[in-house]
Amino acid sequence: MLQYRLIRQEAKLGKNKGKDVYKALPVTRGKVSFDAFCREVSDGSTVDTADVKAVLSRLHTVITRNLERGFSVEVGELGTFRPSFGSVEVLSEKEFEAVKHIRKPRVLFHPRVAFASSLQGVHYERINLDDAKVGEYLPPKKKPEGSTEAPHTSEGTGGHASGGHATDGHVGV
């Protein structure tokens, strides 16, 4: 069961622009640690936890090596990892400089259809902010003007990278 909470915000686009609208934000129940994940994988197989950790560590190394070489890497029923990057536009081919105009590379993950649709049929449960769990994703609080303190964020986004916008509730990979 996936949990959510409702937030109110001002619509920035569309037919409701300028109006207060409500939307659901996902709430995670916490984070499964790498050790706990490895124990769970081990419990359902014939290998021990140390072997699972070793294979996953090696998986990271091999995927990284192949991405750096420019290959896409298929990882069984999970999906495919591929390297990508963005670029600044220039007016002529002669003025294009890779070091200057290519943006930071990133890794894209494309899940297989079976994996991507594994949450179909899931049920939803609405919770109140007072009921929110410790692992819930909360958008960063804005720091007071003139403050040097870093804004507060909760961890435990359930596999989502930290970040996102308070206005859309989306966190990216």
Summarize the amount of helix as a percent range.
10-25%
Nearest-angstrom radius of gyration? 21 Å
- Strand residues, percent: 15-25%
Largest sheet: 3 strands, mixed
Poorly predicted ranges (pLDDT <50, ≥5 residues)?
133-137, 147-173
Shape: flat
Structural class comes to: alpha+beta
Helix-strand sequence: EEHHEEHEHE
* End-to-end separation: 22 Å
The strand count comes to 6
Average predicted confidence as pLDDT: 80
Report the total helices: 4
Strand order of the largest sheet: 2-1-6
What distinguishing features does this structure have?
single chain, alpha+beta, 4 helices, 22% helix, disordered C terminus
List the helices and strands and how they pair.
Blueprint: E1 2-10, E2 20-27, H1 34-43, H2 49-68, E3 73-75, E4 79-84, H3 98-101, E5 106-111, H4 113-116, E6 124-126
Parallel strand pairs: 1-6
Antiparallel strand pairs: 1-2, 3-4, 4-5
Helix pairs in contact: 1-2
Description:
With 173 residues, the chain is an alpha+beta fold. It has a domain of 33 residues. Helices cover 22% and strands 20% of the residues. The chain has four helices and six strands. Strands 2-1-6 form a three-stranded mixed beta sheet, with no helix packed on it. It has a three-stranded antiparallel beta sheet with strand order 3-4-5. Strand 3 and strand 4 form a beta hairpin. The longest helix is centred in the middle third of the chain and has 20 residues. The chain is flat. The C terminus is likely disordered.
